[in-house]
Amino acid sequence: MSEVVDNPNEQRFELPIDDGDGDIAAAYYRIEDGRFILIHTQMPYRFTGQGIGSQLTRGVFDAIRASGGKVVLRCSFMGDYHTRHPEYSDIVIG
């Protein structure tokens, strides 16, 4: 599996899925007051339940932490992940 990358032109973090078809999992955001507002997570349906969403979320949180940023969770998937992984509480502000 690939690494999560920020695509600011599309306002999303992307995780390429190594399936030969060029599919990606994506976490969409907007920036407000210097904070990442995570608003939606999208993944091809055929990949659900394989841990790709968790890998995407972990990569997003790690990238935001490495940048010194903070995040506001408006996506239920991201919120659920954070509930199970409170070790990211240092970057989550809402």
TrEMBL record:
Tell me the domain of life: Bacteria
N-acetyltransferase domain location is: 5-93
Q: Write out the entry's keywords from A to Z.
A: Transferase
Q: Which InterPro entries match?
A: Acyl_CoA_acyltransferase, Gcn5-rel_NAT, GNAT_YJDJ
Name the record gives this protein: Acetyltransferase-like protein
One Pfam family of this chain: Acetyltransf_CG
Organism equals Mesorhizobium alhagi CCNWXJ12-2
List the molecular function annotations (GO) for this entry: transferase activity
